[in-house]
Amino acid sequence: MSMQLLDGKATAASIKSELAEAVAKRKASGMKVPHLAAVLIGEDGGSVTYVNAKVKSCEEIGFESSLLRYDASITEEELLKVVQDLNENDQIDGFIVQLPLPAHIDENKVTMAIDPSKDVDGFHPVNIGKMVLGLPCFLPATPAGIVELLKRYSIETSGKHCVVLGRSTIVGTPVSIMLSRNSNPGNCTVTLAHSRTENLKEVCKSADILIAAIGKPDFVTSDMVKPGAVIIDVGTTRVDDATKKAGWRLKGDVKFDEVKDICGAITPVPGGVGPMTIASLMINTLRAMELNGK
Ligand code: GUN
């Protein structure tokens, strides 16, 4: 059976060129271009890389962007003030506060302070509630990127058994809801598996679509995969690699080298879900501007 590589990098590049075209048209007719702000606290290597990639994507497609960096010692009160200022700033269409935050700051409190109409991460309870109800909202970027990738590769999801590994609030839980709803892609029978799931190998092996989002490198091995299954690898753990300039590389949750010979389709790491996440954030930012009537 020939395996299909689900190329998130190339798919994200075409989404971004579609967005660039839309922005160029707006600009040509004298209209405002979308403006995304990103708040980055501290020096966490992963967060710095992700936020830089988001800012770079804005530049590539003609969005305006603002990067607001603060020391890890910022107080919760100060950060809440930053959020409030962004809520009130008419120039900013949407913004994100990169997670994780330092331990002394309550992430939920910060997320709930964001104006839902500017919450392009889709993390605010209002947006999550709307997502559950199937109402128009900002969808969280990683799940939205996964669904868009399945769509653009015309992968049949209706009636399929989708196993989601990991119940995080930003990936596992929302993607399990999105794929179970009556939509296309969607209409899956979803199993949300996690650290307490019994017979995990068997559960994974029964999946037509397996979404691995637990952050444990090489966790999914070939004996957990049904022949022909579609594998979506959300893992992005940094591992030491002296052959790389940075001294590290990203490793997914799936043992790619052995799973690739069994599955029907698979996302690589890097170049799979990561670029799709950023593309989804850009889609949300354009929508934020349109929804706010600009
Ligand atoms: N940390 C890991 N993923 C994300 C994301 O999609 N958005 C934000 N704000 N923080 C993250």
From TrEMBL:
Please indicate if the UniProt record lists Heme as a keyword: no
State the source organism's domain of life: Bacteria
Q: Which Pfam families match?
A: THF_DHG_CYH, THF_DHG_CYH_C
Instruction: Give the metabolic or biological pathway.
Output: One-carbon metabolism; tetrahydrofolate interconversion
Where do the annotations place NADP(+) binding? G166, R167, S168, T236
The reaction(s) catalysed by this protein are: (6R)-5,10-methenyltetrahydrofolate + H2O = (6R)-10-formyltetrahydrofolate + H(+); (6R)-5,10-methylene-5,6,7,8-tetrahydrofolate + NADP(+) = (6R)-5,10-methenyltetrahydrofolate + NADPH
Per UniProt, residues of the Tetrahydrofolate dehydrogenase/cyclohydrolase catalytic domain are 6-121
Record key words, sorted: Amino-acid biosynthesis, Histidine biosynthesis, Hydrolase, Methionine biosynthesis, Multifunctional enzyme, NADP, One-carbon metabolism, Oxidoreductase, Purine biosynthesis
Sequence ranges assigned to domain Tetrahydrofolate dehydrogenase/cyclohydrolase NAD(P)-binding in this UniProt record: 140-290
Enzyme Commission number(s) from the entry: 1.5.1.5, 3.5.4.9
Q: Could you tell me which InterPro entries the record lists for this protein?
A: Aminoacid_DH-like_N_sf (IPR046346), NAD(P)-bd_dom_sf (IPR036291), THF_DH/CycHdrlase (IPR000672), THF_DH/CycHdrlase_cat_dom (IPR020630), THF_DH/CycHdrlase_CS (IPR020867), THF_DH/CycHdrlase_NAD-bd_dom (IPR020631)
Record-linked HAMAP family: THF_DHG_CYH
Subunit: Homodimer.
General function of this protein: Catalyzes the oxidation of 5,10-methylenetetrahydrofolate to 5,10-methenyltetrahydrofolate and then the hydrolysis of 5,10-methenyltetrahydrofolate to 10-formyltetrahydrofolate.
Entry's family note: Belongs to the tetrahydrofolate dehydrogenase/cyclohydrolase family.
UniProt name for this protein: Bifunctional protein FolD
